[in-house]
Every structure is written in structure tokens, then in C-alpha cells.
User: Fold Acyl-coenzyme A thioesterase THEM4 from Streptomyces albipurpureus.
Amino acid sequence: MSTENPRGPSPGHPALIPPADALRPVRHPDAPAPGELLGTHYDHCFGCGGAQPHGLHLQARAGDGVSITAEFTVQAAHQGAPGLAHGGVLTSALDETLGSLNWLLRTIAVTGRLETDFVRPVPVDTQLFLQAEVTAVAGRKIYSTAVGRIGGPAGPVAVRANALFIEVKVDHFIDNGRQVEIQAAMADPDQIRRVRAFEVNP
Ligand SMILES: CCCCCCCC(=O)SCCNC(=O)CCNC(=O)[C@H](O)C(C)(C)COP(=O)(O)OP(=O)(O)OC[C@H]1O[C@@H](n2cnc3c(N)ncnc32)[C@H](O)[C@@H]1OP(=O)(O)O
Assistant:
């Protein structure tokens, strides 16, 4: 097997290609400083929450510009084939990392489309090093890309993804989420945690 995907980055679905008049993403002035851990946005989030025993417990850190780095270690509970990470779990890690980018834009957005290239199998106990960045913004549409490496932050590529997130109002969650969790999140006295809980579909 070669060290890089011989096909190179997948061009992806046409909907993942920004239009010609798309804008460069702008980091929000109040975004966390480069190197700062973002922390969990919602305790019950499968991607980053501490209250999910089999969750990814992914830790994301602000990077330069509108970029994120994140790590997660594949657990036995994340297997698909014996001793190997389930592809859907790896896609979840990419989704979580890409979703974290929206916090740097201070935009509430949900995943509309997410395409994953699985380049290498990822064994249990492997640490996956993820990097993601927003590439363009066009109205409510946020275009982003991510890569996951194994063996170190500069190691071989195991997964990569392109995504389109769509900006939504907080009503998206309030109108669609199960009421018991919505009420609990809205009752959180910490305003930042309350806002961040509604970054994604709870
Ligand atoms: C820290 C945070 C970590 C978070 C990580 C996890 C993030 C998540 O997983 S979020 C949960 C998964 N996603 C969801 O549940 C979203 C479900 N989908 C929806 O609610 C809706 O389809 C939604 C909101 C995306 C779009 O609906 P709506 O607001 O009516 O917008 P709509 O008018 O259809 O589309 C807006 C634009 O986006 C485009 N678009 C919408 N969906 C897609 C799609 N799937 N593919 C391509 N383009 C799309 C439309 O074509 C339209 O483009 P244009 O403006 O050029 O005409």
C-alpha cells in the first residue's frame, strides 16, 4: 500500500464545490486563541461529551485562521471489523471536528453533506490526529475539509472528508429536538455552554 492515497483528494459531489462568488471564511474576533482547547459543547454529544461512555471523547483545539486540530483514540467499542474502527465512527470523528469549526465563525450550523474517503484501516487503540479548515462561505453555506492521520500529526492519511454545513437559527434545535433534552440544555446557567449546546443537533 502506498503512503498517500494515489487518487489524491476526492473532488467530491458538485454540491461540495464552492461557487465562484464564495467568500473566504472570517475568524470571529472572539474566537478562542490558537492552541486553546474548545472543550465539550454538550455533555451528551457522541463526539465530545463526557456523559457518553462509548462516545469519541474527541478533544478539539483552535488553530490559526478558521482551522481546528483534534485527537481521538479508537476504543474497542468503536469496532466494525475485528480490531478495526467502524467507518461510521471515523466519519463521526470527522463530522465532530468539522462541526467545531463553526465555533470559530460563531455561526450555528448543521451538517448538510459529508463525504468521507477511507484511505487506510484504523486499528483499535490508534490515536487519530485530525485537522480541519473552512475553505469558503457562500450565504448560509459553509464549505470545509478535514483529514485524519495516524502515527502522529504528520503521519500517513487514514481518512479525509469534504463537507457542507448549513447555517440555521437556534429554532432548528428547539423545534426538532426532543423536549426533555431541549429544556435541560436551555436551563444550563452557563450562557456559553447553553449557546454551544445548540451548535448541533442534540
Ligand atoms: C462542536 C460541534 C460538533 C458538531 C458535529 C456534528 C454536526 C452534526 O452532525 S449536525 C446533525 C446532522 N445534520 C442534520 O441533522 C441536518 C438535517 N437537515 C436539515 O435540517 C435541513 O436539511 C437543513 C437545515 C440542512 C437545510 O434545510 P433549510 O434550512 O430548509 O435550507 P435549504 O433551503 O434546503 O438549503 C439551503 C442551501 O443549502 C443547500 N443544501 C441543503 N442541504 C444540502 C445537502 N444535503 N447537500 C447539498 N446542498 C444542500 C441547498 O441546496 C440550498 O442552497 P442554495 O441556497 O444555493 O439554494
